[in-house]
Specification:
Elements: H1 6-14, E1 118-120, E2 145-150, E3 165-170, E4 185-186, E5 189-190
Parallel strand pairs: 1-2, 2-3, 3-4
Antiparallel strand pairs: 4-5
């Protein structure tokens, strides 16, 4: 088995190799260019991906529990079905990212840019209602798509929902002000 050091991973990504299903638990890839990398179904729990460039990367079904992705660039990144429990994505750029079916519990999206991102999971049930809250506080959710999701204990204070599409979204247990949803599009029309 090859060593999973930072330089080894970066070298293998440059060579176009995949890390699908590999164990990269607690790896430090901070400040690295990981553009287009395939980490599908990889174990990246506890990884340090702070300020990493994961543009167009495949993180579908990856375990990112407790990972630090603060200030990371995740443009058009696929995170479908990813475990983002207790992950930090504070001030990350997730423009156009796909997070459908991702497990969000205690996830920190404070100040993140989720413009045109896709979130939602009709079959997911929050595991820790009002436990350690997932927060989108002061996040940019402009033109984001939220589909069929119950936002139990989600903090939306100060988030920008201008042009965001909220389809079948249950906000009854979310923490927000009416003004936070100004400009959002719901089944009832524009708020």
């Amino acid at each position: 088995m090859q060593e999973k050091s930072q330089s080894n991973v970066v070298e293998r990504i440059s060579a176009g190799e995949s890390f699908a299903n590999e164990n990269l638990e607690n790896i430090d890839l901070a400040n690295q260019s990981l553009v287009g990398a395939d980490f599908s179904a990889a174990n990246l729990s506890g990884a340090n991906l702070k300020n990493a460039d994961l543009t167009d990367a495949n993180l579908n079904d990856a375990n990112l529990e407790g990972a630090d992705l603060s200030e990371a660039v995740l443009l058009r990144t696929y995170l479908v079905g990813a475990n983002l429990k207790e992950a930090t994505l504070e001030n990350a750029n997730l423009f156009g990212a796909f997070l459908s079916g991702s497990l969000l519990s205690g996830t920190n999206f404070r100040g993140a840019d989720l413009c045109r991102a896709t979130l939602g999971c009709p079959t997911c049930v929050p595991t820790e209602k009002f436990g350690s809250l997932t927060t989108f506080e002061n996040a940019n959710l402009e033109e984001a798509i939220f589909g069929e999701i119950k936002l139990d204990g989600i903090v939306l204070l100060g988030a920008n929902f201008k042009g965001a599409y909220l389809y079948e979204v249950d906000l009854s247990e979310a923490i927000y002000r009416e003004s936070d949803l100004e400009g959002a599009i719901t089944k009832q029309g524009r708020n």
